[in-house]
Amino acid sequence: MELNNEQRRRGRWKMLAILAVCALPLIASYFTYYVIKPGPSTNYGTLLDPRSYPVPRLDSATLDGKPTELDAYKGKWIMLQVDSGNCAAPCQKKLHDMRQLRTAQGKERERVERVWMITDKEPLDTMLMREYDGTRMLRVRQEALQGWLPVEQGASLADHIYMIDPLGNLMMRFPKDADPNRIKKDLGRLLKASKVG
Q: How far apart are CA 103 and CA 196, in angstroms?
């Protein structure tokens, strides 16, 4: 039984409709990727170009005066904060958050170091030192850090927590009054994605 022209035409339209329905998701994905270009960034912290921020020589020292540099922790991820030895409430909150963030990484926590760069000669509170035992506390001149650590507009060095990668490059900065839960997600992703450190 031969099909007439009208039936052939309807058959072709049906076939084209089926092909269009099958091809539409592919076309939409290409359009979204190449034309709309959605941002790939799902991170909370601001990514920094690591090549632009290698860790410089800071002439830092331990609390007992022994010279040491951040290179001593190379090979690990470093959460870094900067503050005065007085360590008011915002400083203590960052110390607490860094401790909890490291602990929250479970078996991966050994890959993370916490460093507090103290920018003056103020004596530290003994109870504070005990509470945050395990945090590396180094004294350093503020000027040495200002030439290296970038800050958000309207913020200061003491407002941020920074991340340094295991190769010794500054690569992320978290905002002022950062949400620890969102930092935790970023840190978890970094540790999962990286085989280094």
A: 19
